[in-house]
Amino acid sequence: MNSLANLSGRIKILTVACVMIVFTACEKEIKVTLPDYSNKVVIEGSIENGQPAVVMVTRSMPYFSYINIDTLMNKVFINNAIVTVTSSSGESEQLVFTRASDISSFYFAYVSPTLRGEEGKIYTLKVEFDGQEYSAVTSILHPFALDSIGFAPFKGSDSTLSVRALMTDNPATTDYYRFQVKVRGKKLHDRFWASCMPVAFDDLTFSGLTMNVEVLRTFPLRLFLEDMNDEQRKEYNRRTYRKGDTVYVKYSCIDYDSYRYWITAAGELNGGNPFRSPAPIISNIKGNNVLGAWCGYASKIDTLYFR
Amino acid sequence: MWEINGKLIKAFGLLLSVLLLFCYNAEAQKVTLSGVVKDAANGETLLGAQLVLFDTLNRTEQMTTLSNQAGFYTITVRPGTYVAVVLLFGYGEWHDTLTLAKNRTLNIELSHASIMANEVVVSADRADHNVSSVDVGKMAMSIETIKAMPSLMGEADVLKSVQLLPGVQSGGEGNSGFFVRGGSADQNLIMLDGATIYNPSHLFGFFSIFNANAVKNVEITKSAMPAYYGGRLASILDVSQMDGNLKQWQADGGIGVIFSNITVQGPIKKDRCSLILSGRRTYIDWLVQPFLTKESPVKGMKFYFYDLNGKLNIVINDKHRLFISGYYGSDVYGFKSRSGGTMAQFQWSNGAGTLRWNYIISPKLFLNTVATLSDYQFTTKIGMSVYSFSIKSAVRDYGLRTELTYIPTTKHNLRFGLHYVFHRILPNNYAIQAGENNNLSIPQSPPFYAHELAIYVNDEYDVARWLKLNLGLRYTHFEHVGSFVRYILDDFGYVADSVTYKPGEIVKQYNYVEPRIAARFLLGKTTAIKASYTLNFQYLHQVNMATISLPVDVWMPSTDIVKPQIGNQVSLGIYQNFHKDMFEAYIDGYYKWMQNQVEYRDGLDFSWLTINPDQMYAFGKGYSWGVEFFLKKNTGRFTGFIGYTLSYTKRQFDALNNGKPFYAKYDRRHDVTVSLNYTIIRNKLDIAAVWVFASGNKMTIPLGYYFFGGTMMTEYSERNAYTMPPYHRLDLSLTWTICKRKHFETSLNFSVYNLYNQKNPFFIFYETDMHTLTNGTGQMTNFSLTTKAYQMSLFPIIPSITWNFKIK
Questions:
Q1: Fewer CB within 10 Å: N-end or C-end of chain A?
Q2: Pairs of CB atoms within 8 A across A/B
Q3: Which stretch, B50-59, B198-207, B225-234, B653-662, has highest mean pLDDT?
Q4: Is residue B46 helix, strand or coil?
């Protein structure tokens, strides 16, 4: 199971924690001189059944560089790229740069005005910018149904609950799954879907069998969050659900390239840890000096009310 | 390549018989003097004592021999009258005039230098071991030297002391792994009384498992490995336990900050049978618990480690001797959150058992037979919410080694031997529970079984006064056998098919011949040039997953996928003694090239639970070269050494770093050690200081960041492209012998670790400071992001005090 990726990170942290408790450790700021860095183009794109294509195009920055709102808007976000999506049935559309306030993305994204994702189709993305061309292909497979989903007790807590989903795998195919969750709320970040742990998983450990997936609450963003006090942070970081919550669970089938991107990126998405040896993230985008992924989702959404 | 066929086996046999014949043409009219060299105080046999015979008629030049690990020596000369001198560092000179008309057995007892009336008399006209010997890369450290060195928390540490020698690099604080001449940590064979120790660390590497109070000798071989050693590419660390006092009962002990230890030894029957038992344990957990509040996160934490050593030594008669020795040590660390939701436990143990039989067949023939058992186990348990997860890793070895030493004349020292080991290696066994109603089917991960066999012949051949050779040939055979299931993977890395092997069925075989050659050319009496070439094969591998060495790094045998590691080394050095051997020095350069080195593949996903563990590895080449400088002062009130190593270590793996060569993590440009001892008041007050400097380890660093998936992601540099800041530290220790009487001795040791409180890098981490302001509609009005690098240091200045006692 992919949750091991996270666990092995924890082993190392706990190991060191054990040692640290006994010995007095000490830290100080140091200067690390980095070699020259050339910025790369970052593409984060997705298309889902019944939903428009959403593509963010940004620039990567040198690791120790300071950015403010001006650099963010003018240097990080790229607003003059030509972004096109073409489907296997021949539909093609140029995406429109949108200041997003109603879509599950950051402040700016390229969105398809009329094109919507359809099951069983292949979608090709093309991004032209600064004389360079980047392309990627993904597919929307077929959504799957859960056997059941509902609230379940959470060990170590009496008042809050976790969500358990029961799913049966199709033994005839190798399948790749993603679960995402969000809890209804008024804040900006409540609009975003959060990846469950593991970020993505395959069916190798339960091929043809029934599997119990624990869908714990996770926080969708580590970026662009307003400063929080301890109480707010605790609330934001809570993992279980409590009375009054409306919980949306999105479960998707994804293709192998998307899966491979998510699992190789998982270490980074979880915030990483100082002992992890960084491994390359395998992108499905072709082109020079480019990072990111273009992923198709075949999804269903269930809504649960904790009354 | 040295892959063997029938012809090579025949050639090997032929060479053996030629060597035998060659040695056998000794003249008839010769006599042999042989015996065992022992410590007069406790009857412990002594290794490396040098016996020199001077012909009173001056018909021949002086002749020299050394005692072996059982203290046995033999020398064959023309009948006549000789002045015999026995020398061993730390002991007084023994001398006698012997008339040798026929074969004679003479057991020699040496007394400690300090209780002799005179200073150590260094005989004139003898070349010191540093210059005369042909064992190029071998260095020994006496346990007294180790105990006199300053140490962390006052606990004398065999492994940390060995790491001060040139060419031996420490892995840094919190890492008991050491790196010899650019070899990885798994390329060192660590033996306790001949049994392999697979994980010599306590407390994640802050201490080693060797209890200095139970150890007699420490020897490390880092180049020109003789044929009687093998199985690893970089080095052999041979640690012998004490045999136990044959003369009288005694108890030694120490009470320190971290450990306390006690050793009891004595004769069950005087001069015939002795027993030694030694133990030590940490007790910080007991000391701390009463002072903790109920809310403390440390409350209920398990935190201890211990060692037990024992040896029974039976002198059956002058010819037969039997030793039964054992070691067991374990570490336990556990943590449980107060709610019970999260728990973690680490536990590992090493066990080693040895049965040794020494048999002096004739004055020229010595037989050493050892049966060994090694056992290493590591268990990790992690629990979070409904999930619980455990990894178990283990190695079990059953070994038998028998070796015949034949010393026909003073010109040859022949060793023939056979070494067989049966390995049972469990790289990792996972168990996962994810609450009720779950059908997680994690495949079984059964152990790997393998046979390892070596047959060798080694000759130390004194060709002429100016030339001495060490010639060796080692034939090794390795067999990975069933039961075993090999998965066959498709292009995506998923299991498509499998092949099942029955118990005992051969999965893969390897046969190799390893030539070893070393030569010493004497230039005058105090200068020598030494050169060597060796080829080694290594059938067991340890692959490191974390950036700091943790015991989770599992062992893995060679299989059809994991080929044996191949190591070639050439070395060339000049060795010089000064001032009547008061100083010894050498400069030694080396170049190593290695194949079939193992690392984890990049970007592993956890589908690897369903495949064979060796399918997760990448294979490549390694290169290292360097030069070592060493200067040592042996005698006087002021002793010590200075070592400097300049080295480069690179690796190249097709599957890593886009196939481009990269520096190994432990690539270390400069390594300096200064170790000094000074006797302020003889038998009363001694002071010792150690200063170390090492270039920083290599690491991969972040180059850039970008936004993806609602988070800040990092883009990394090429593998190990950054050098961490250098490491340096000064330690000091003062030993005050309070009283030294016939039946009672007591001393206090004050140690200061990291005297000038240098903040050395343990690891580097980064922290990002991000602030966002928005208006009520979710519009961002202000934003800032900046990242800084921090260095974590482990040990500040640590003073400690240990009280030691001895009752006889």
A1: C
A2: 280
A3: B225-234
A4: coil
Distance, CA of B679 to CA of B775 (rounded, Å):
75
With an 8 Å Cβ cutoff, are A260 and B605 in contact? yes
CB contact under 8 A, B346 and A18: yes
Nearest to B710 among A157, A211, A223 (CB): A223
Which one is predicted more confidently, B515 or A11? B515
Looking at the predicted structure, is the pLDDT value of residue B112 above 50? yes
Return the SS3 of B624: strand
Q: How far apart, in whole angstroms, are the C-alpha atoms of residue B407 and residue B414?
A: 6
Q: How far apart are CA A196 and CA A184, in angstroms?
A: 16
Pick the residue of B301, B616, B715 with the most A CBs within 10 A to test the interface with A by mutation: B715
CB contact under 8 A, A214 and B702: no
State the best of A7, A196, A254, A264 to mutate against chain B, taking most chain B CBs within 10 Å.
Answer: A7
pLDDT band (50, 70, 90) for residue B388: confident
Closest partner CB to A19 (pick from B204, B301, B494): B204
In this predicted structure, what is the pLDDT of residue B781?
A: 78
Chain A residue nearest residue B603, CA to CA = A279
Judge whether residue A224 has pLDDT over 50. yes
Identify residue B681 by its one-letter amino acid code: I
A57 CB neighbours in chain B (<8 A) are none
Q: Which of A119-128, B163-172, B336-345, B755-764 has the lowest mean pLDDT?
A: B336-345
Out of A69-73, B528-532, B784-788, give the one with best mean pLDDT: B528-532
Identify whether the C-beta of residue B654 lies closer than 8 Å to the C-beta of residue B643: no
Q: Do A27 and B792 touch (CB under 8 A)?
A: yes
**CB-based contact B711 A221, cutoff 8 Å:** yes
Nearest CA in chain B to A43: B708
List Cβ neighbours of A111 (8 Å cut-off, separation of 6 or more): A52, A53, A54, A55, A95, A96, A98, A100, A103
User: Which of the pair, B335 or A257, is modelled with greater confidence?
Assistant: A257
Considering only residues B523 and B390, tell me which one the structure prediction assigns the higher pLDDT.
Answer: B523
For residues A147-175, average pLDDT: 86
- How far apart, in Å, are the Cα atoms of A28 and each of A157, B769, B789, B792? 38, 16, 9, 7
Q: Quick one: which of B710, B437, B385, B384 has its CA closest to A180?
A: B710
- CB B389 within 8 Å of CB A4: yes
| C-beta atoms of A224 and B780 within 8 A | yes
Whose CA is closest to B514, among B531, B538, B537?
B537
**B6-126, what's its fold?**
Immunoglobulin-like (2.60.40)
> Measured between alpha carbons, how far is B489 from B491 in angstroms, rounded to an integer?
7
Distance (Å) from the alpha carbon of A211 to chain B's nearest alpha carbon: 6
Please check the confidence at residue A152 and state whether its pLDDT lies above 50. yes
Topology of domain B138-238, CATH: Ferric Hydroxamate Uptake Protein; Chain A, domain 1 (2.170.130)
- Domain extents in chain B: 6-126, 138-238, 239-761+794-807
Kindly report the backbone phi and psi dihedral angles of residue B643, in degrees, each rounded to the nearest multiple of 5, phi listed first: -130, 145
In the predicted structure, residue B565 carries a pLDDT above the cut 90: yes
Domain spanning B239-761+794-807, CATH class: mainly beta
- Point out the residue among B174, B609, B706 whose CB comes nearest to the CB of A58: B706
How far is A110 from A208, CA to CA, in rounded Å?
Answer: 39
Which residues make Cβ contacts (< 8 Å) with residue B176, sequence separation at least 6?
Answer: B159, B200, B201, B202, B205, B206, B207, B208, B549
User: Do B243 and B44 meet the contact criterion of CB atoms below 8 Å apart?
Assistant: yes
How far away is chain B from the Cα of A289, in angstroms, using its nearest Cα?
Answer: 12
ipTM of this complex = 0.88
| Closest A-chain CA to B297 | A21
Q: Report whether B158 contacts B210 (CB < 8 A).
A: yes
Residue B642 to chain A, least CA–CA distance (Å): 30
